[in-house]
Amino acid sequence: QVQLVESGGGLVQPGGSLRLSCAASTTIFSIYAMGWYRQAPGKQRELVAAITSGGSTNYADSVKGRFTISRDNAKNTLYLQMNSLKPEDTAVYYCNAHRVVIFTPYDYWGQGTQVTVSS
After folding, report:
1. Residues 17-48: pLDDT tens digits?
2. How far, in Å, CA of 98 to CA of 93, rounded?
3. CB-CB contact of 9 with 82 (8 Å)
């Protein structure tokens, strides 16, 4: 079992920046992939960015060039650097960890952190 706790959300003006953190309860070096999802009111949860144990990354088209996902295995922490924020980025952001154990997939979720972009 992996427990995930997000932090770093808050209120920011358009064009501003935030860095989200996701602290894991155990080492993450063995986790195949971790990612950030978000869910805005009236919308389904969507993948924002993901990173694999091999270092490959994937971003939603809407955030490419603005967001950067990274992980610090020594600190068991996942990050999402968000720059040039737009009002449409407003959502609850969730941390996700994905791994496969004996060919069985597992997904773990944090409780979410609110990001509000408004002037």
Report:
1. 999 999 998 877 677 899 999 999 999 999 99
2. 16
3. no
